[in-house]
Each structure stands twice: as structure tokens, then as C-alpha cells.
Write a structure and sequence with these properties.
two-stranded antiparallel ribbon, 0% helix, mainly beta
Length: 78
């Protein structure tokens, strides 16, 4: 899935389309990142990260089944 800003306002939160209702966010990693957090979507099929304000939106799974953005990935199971 790819991040995008769907609003005309360039300061609105970044939106990342994902194919699972539980996602992980690290703010993009590196010096601009934040601790890895797991987020669960509610009935409205969206969730916002409390650290970086990225908005994750649930969409239909694509044919390749992958995530293009490293901060929008399925949680790791141990």
C-alpha cells in the first residue's frame, strides 16, 4: 500500500491504505521515527497514530498482497 495525502491541505495527516485492521507504525523509521506501536481499527475502518498522526485506512487486498510502506505492515507474531 502506498502513503498519500488525500486532502488539498498539505498539512493534513498522511493517509496509508492497508489491507488489515491491525497495523504497526514506527513513523517511517530513522531519526524522524518513533517507537513501534500497534493500532487496531474501529468500525469506521480507520485509525490514527498518536505519535505521528498518520491515518491508516482499510482497503481491499491487492493482488500482490504486500505493503509498500515499511510503517504500514502486519504485526509480527511471536
Amino acid at each position: 500500500m502506498s502513503p498519500r495525502n488525500t486532502s488539498a491541505d498539505p498539512h493534513s495527516p498522511e493517509e496509508i491504505r492497508v489491507t488489515q485492521s491491525r497495523v504497526a507504525c514506527d513513523g517511517g523509521g530513522g531519526v524522524l521515527g518513533h517507537p513501534l506501536v500497534y493500532l487496531e481499527m474501529g468500525e469506521d475502518k480507520t485509525v490514527e497514530c498518536g505519535y505521528c498522526d498518520r491515518r491508516f485506512r482499510l482497503v481491499t487486498r491487492t493482488s500482490d498482497g504486500g505493503y509498500e510502506d515499511p510503517s504500514a505492515r502486519a504485526p509480527e507474531h511471536h
